[in-house]
Each structure stands twice: as C-alpha cells, then as structure tokens.
Amino acid sequence: MCDRKCAALSVQPYPSRPDEHNFQGFILIFPPHIRVHVSGENVAMEAVYTHGIWMAESLQERTRSQEKFWLVVTHIGDPKAAFLLVFPFTYFISKRAGVTVLWVAAVSEWLNLVFKWMLFGERPFWWIGESRLFVNKQPKVHQVSSTCETGPGSPSGHAMVSAAVWWVVVSSLGSFLYSRTHSVVLSAAPYLLYVVMLLAVGISRIFILAHFPHQVVAGSFTGLILGIVLSRRVPERRPLLFFFSLSVVLLLGALMLYAGLLQLGVDVTWSIALAKKWCSRAEWIRLETLPFSSLTRDCGALLGLGLAQYWKPGGWSLPWAPRALALAFSSMGLYHVNRLPLPVQPQGLFYGLFFVKFIMVPQIVMVLVPGLVHLVTHKKKKD
Fold it and tell me: Which of 28, 88, 232, 344 lies most in the core, judged by the most C-beta atoms within 10 Å?
C-alpha cells in the first residue's frame, strides 16, 4: 500500500547526525526516538537549534549579573501565575476581565499541551548532550532550578499562556483608558508594556535553557491569536453543566490523544526521560511540570469557575476598599493553597489532589473571601 512513499523515506534512530545519514525526502512529525528524513531539513533544524544554543550562551555571559531578575521574570510568565496572580488581581478590578483571564489561561494552556504532544520540540538543556554536536566545543552555559521542565519544548507554554492572558489585561486596560481620556497615545501604553513583558519572558526562557528562540516566538504569536479569539467568547453566567462538560471533554480529549499516540507507537513520555537524563540536579525535576499536571490544572480551574458562578451568580458586589481587602486575603489564601505539599506517590493521587487544588482557586477568589469580606463590612455598617 505504501510502496512509493516508503521507498522515498528512510527511518533513522534518534538522535540523527548529518554526517551519519543521507537525507532524502521529507521530515515528518515523529517523536525524537524516530525521525523520518527527507532532503536537508534535519540539517536546517540542527542549524536553528545550534544558533539557539549560542544565543543562550551569549545571554548568560552578558547578563549573568541579572540571573535573579530573569528567574523572577520566568516565574511571572509561568502559566501557574495566570491562575494564582493575574486572575485574582484582575477579578477584583473587573469581574468580567477576571473570568476572561481564567478562561483564556485554562484553554490556552490545554492547547499548548496538545501542540507540544504533536510537535515534539526539543529543549536546549537536553539537546546539547543528545545532539552530540558539542563534543569538541562545549557551550559555556549552566542550568538553574527552573530549567528542567519535563514536557516537549514547542511552542513555549510560558510565552503562549502569557501572551493570551496578558492580552486580556492590556486590551481591557487600553479600552478603559481610551474611554476616560480619548487619548490614543495613553491608551496605547498598555500595549507597549505588553510587548516589553513578552520580550522579557521570552529572553528569560532562552536564558535558563528551557526554550529555543523560535519556540518562544511561536508561543507568543499563538498566544496573541488565542487571546484575541477567546476573549470574545467568555462563558459568563453559563450553567454548571457547561463547565462540567467542558472539563470532561478537555480531559477525555487529551487522554484520547495520548492513547492514540501510544497506539501509533509514539513514546509520549520521551521528554520526561530526557529531562531526567540531562538535568543537573534530580531535585529540579518537579511533578507539577509534567504534562498531566497542566491538564489537571486546566480542567480543575474550569470546573471551579463553573462552581463559583453556580454558588454566587454575578459574584459579590463590593466597594473599592473592601475589594482591596478581598484581594489581599485572596492572595494570601492562594499562596497557602499553592504551598500545600502533595504526595508524589502514587501519581494518580497527586494528580487528583492537584485537580482539587485548582478547583479551589475560583472558589477562594470569587466566593469565599469576597463573601467573608462582605459579611464583615456589611455587619460593621449595621453596627
């Protein structure tokens, strides 16, 4: 059935080297332990990866004194920060914008997981060793505690989720400023800040050897498109069944893709093995960076959003001072929820508790803390 196609294809074990094989035909999307090559494309990708490594080396050499700054930036750009930092801050300024942030964060991170499973992108910290291109001249780079992420590298999740979520924030802020000032220059300021923040996150990901430059660019543009599209379709005041169904569909959809790839002979866990192999310290490998952690976070947050809107449709109405108080207490609550230690074994229990943890995030921000603040301030007014 595939005589013509198969005759043109040569399947080689990973990693492949341009000096070891003749390249004929196309390169198709396969996991890194199997590459299907055709004329010179593998050489082109090796050139892209190699330039990315030298860029990371240059960044580390020139900005070594700013390493702590880049670590802070990469933490701010973490998809988790969209749920634990951007969501509560935005919600207490504008409820609709806050709900939009949570919605966009969950859907964009889920799509990022799907893209990563399909694209099989490398990460610099393991590609340096796996490529065997730097035997004679090792790049002068080092890993940090945030380097050793376990999922595939393309596109960058930090860049993609940040671009999507921050678009919601800056577009809302830009519209607000224009409605109050009618100044194009002033209303454009948030968009300039948006570009600067995305550049900073992208540079931080290259600096710590988590991503190649092209992965950051791909994530940023994809996230921007998702932010624009998803912010126009916000599921406000939808019934609980909608969110329950959406959470189940996303969970089952990802599991079906995972099972389908396994049936095709794809080792979906290839990136985890490489991360463990090439990470400088074993303790830098964290379960929360595994692909299924992202999946349970997204599904849990969406179900939690539905529950929060079910318990208190429209949310609590608070004046500005009580809102600031609610934001402070919500931030404290989320900080402690995030720090709750979860058992790493069995992994099923970890994922289950991780799911519950992010169900609680919207409950704390939208229902529990505002409700308590409303109760206390309302009681004081009566007294």
Answer: 88
